[in-house]
């Protein structure tokens, strides 16, 4: 593991412990524009996380709706601390469009991601911009600047390390998680879901197996707190065992139900009966429609 030379390497424990503060977005209706094949529903609430120390703040993921990013900027300002860095976990626009307005508001901030992730952002930019406009219309921030490549795999907040770990698969790949050892916290990106239907409609059955390996990696870090990219507004970031167990069993159950499902409705009925307390049914509907279309198209 290499070290980001622009950051301060700690020589002693910080006087003020670092902390993770979770900002949860609105829970918007989708789609903004009627489109065949896209069901009506809601888009999962999305998180942005402030890691703050005595004087500095690092933001992990930057949201995508104009109103949320305004509120997120207000929250950062109210800390009275310096926003040094924005780190983006993966290439989905719900996690990064906010860097445009945040860079304008905090001109000294550095926005970074792993080189792989930036390449993927470039490749999918046009398609995602079309999709996000369809889903959110004028509420969404237009596509703007991309992050710069991160040198190494470590960021610092007032001397405390944030370790970036690239994992093989979450809802997409390339994708990353952030481990913060000083507070036993994992920022999971979209590798773990917290009481929200996981997005399985953007990956293949082989990639669903790889996603299970990623869950093992998160579990081995033995975090006390996991912040998922998508969680209920009233979600519990300390319900670590439940989050890990439910994400794992959900993917296993989806893998088991998928080959035998008559159609998307059948798969939706099976999964929603098994996980009646998961929120944001739309993500299951979208995932089932896409997965069954790929299966039947491939036959
Ligand atoms: Zn996401």
TrEMBL record:
Residues 45-230 form the Metallo-beta-lactamase domain. SMART domains: Lactamase_B. Coiled coil: none annotated. It comes from the Bacteria. CDD domains: metallo-hydrolase-like_MBL-fold. It holds the Pfam family Lactamase_B. InterPro entries: Metallo-B-lactamas, NDM-1-like, RibonucZ/Hydroxyglut_hydro. This is MBL fold metallo-hydrolase. It comes from Rhodococcus tibetensis.
């Amino acid at each position: 593991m290499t070290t980001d030379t622009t950051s301060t390497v700690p020589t002693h424990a910080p006087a003020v412990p670092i902390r993770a503060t979770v900002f949860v977005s609105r829970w918007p209706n989708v789609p903004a524009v009627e489109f065949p094949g896209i069901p009506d529903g809601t888009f999962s609430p999305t998180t942005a996380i402030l890691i703050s120390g005595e004087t500095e703040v690092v933001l992990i993921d930057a949201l995508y709706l104009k109103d949320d990013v305004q509120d997120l900027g207000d929250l950062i300002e109210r800390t009275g601390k310096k926003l040094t860095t924005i780190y983006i976990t993966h290439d989905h626009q719900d996690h990064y469009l906010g860097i445009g307005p945040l860079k304008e508001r905090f001109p000294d901030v550095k926005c970074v991601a792993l080189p792989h992730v930036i390449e993927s952002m470039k490749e999918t930019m046009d398609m995602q911009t079309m999709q996000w406009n369809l889903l959110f219309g004028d509420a969404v921030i237009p596509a703007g600047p991309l992050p710069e490549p991160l040198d190494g795999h470590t960021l610092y907040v007032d001397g405390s390390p944030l370790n970036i770990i690239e994992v093989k698969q979450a809802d997409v790949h390339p994708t990353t998680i952030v481990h913060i050892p000083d507070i036993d916290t994992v920022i999971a990106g979209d590798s773990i879901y917290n009481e929200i239907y996981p997005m399985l409609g953007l990956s293949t059955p082989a990639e669903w197996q790889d996603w299970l390996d990623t869950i093992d990696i998160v579990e081995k870090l033995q975090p006390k707190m996991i912040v998922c990219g998508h969680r209920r507004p009233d979600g519990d970031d300390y319900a670590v065992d439940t989050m890990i167990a439910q994400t794992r069993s959900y993917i296993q159950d989806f893998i088991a139900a998928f080959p035998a499902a008559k159609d998307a409705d059948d798969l939706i009925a099976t999964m929603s009966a098994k996980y009646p307390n998961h929120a944001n049914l739309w993500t299951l509907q979208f995932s089932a429609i896409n997965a069954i279309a790929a299966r039947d198209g491939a036959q």
